[in-house]
Amino acid sequence: MTDTSSEVELTEIRDAFQLLANETRLSILYALWTRPTWEATFTELKTAVGMRDSGQFQYHLNQLMGTFIQRTDEGYTHLAGGIALYRTVLGTLGGPDDIPQLVLETPCLLCHGSLVLSYENQVFYARCESCGETVLSSPFFPAGVANRTDQELLMAFDTWSRRLIDLLQSGVCPWCASTISHDFERSGDSEEVLITHQCTRCEGFLTTHIGEVFLSDPAVISFFYLLGRDVTTAPYWSFEFCTDSDDVTVLSEDPWMVEQAIRYEGETIRLKLDETMDTTVADCSIDSLSNSSAWL
Ligand SMILES: [Zn+2]
Ligand SMILES: [Zn+2]
């Protein structure tokens, strides 16, 4: 039977970190991480770590078993958690924490001022130089900033952000694969409607506009495609419906149901979104789309 509990005791978390507070055990993990197949025999690991006492070495291997490593027919390999740990650490090392600001080609959709992208303490911010509005903020690993031109960096950040939103709205945590809750809220005085997608296990979260959830919707992709714009390749912050709530209508708050109008080239598509992230097309000014049975 599947354990549906998302609760992990603090002592379990502390015990997992405690396992890493030992030079021999870290050396074992490092020896596995740096092998092409992430697999090694007992003797290969013992030689790599440089420990003579087989009993002591076996003790440390056993300590790591079940949390970071597992046995195979030939020896030992990582569990998924051991690999994720390595990748997370690698992603945060070797890149800059800050980079020079970039002026984006897309102007501020509120006031048409210049949008400036900055990277501060491993978080991207796009802010308008004129009205001061922050149109996006999202964490990004330093490894993603290194070795890329400005244009490549913007594309990488756009792709990364879209995948995060995709996974979150599908109910899969992009950081630990657990389940996601979606909480609608009105934001401050502006009455903007935002959704906070939060992991039920690792507390990872991202707050999005309603429109961002529609970015990968087939009806929205088709709507823009018919009007000659590829919504899958233009940066998501260049779409007004992704950066404000002006065209969002709240239909109900208990349970939440909202309608988003998306406008382009004189045409409009309206979609509904409920608390479970189910989307439906309410209507569309392009006949061939509004008549499609695929959206009903
Ligand atoms: Zn502005
Ligand atoms: Zn998570």
From TrEMBL:
Q: Which Gene3D superfamilies match?
A: Winged helix-like DNA-binding domain superfamily/Winged helix DNA-binding domain (1.10.10.10)
Task: Enumerate the InterPro entries for this protein.
Answer: ArsR-like_HTH, DUF7347, DUF7351, WH-like_DNA-bd_sf, WH_DNA-bd_sf
Report domain DUF7351 positions. Answer: 106-278
Give every DUF7347 domain span. 15-88
Q: Which superkingdom heads the taxonomic lineage of this protein's source? A: Archaea
Query: What is the protein's name according to its record?
Result: ArsR family transcriptional regulator
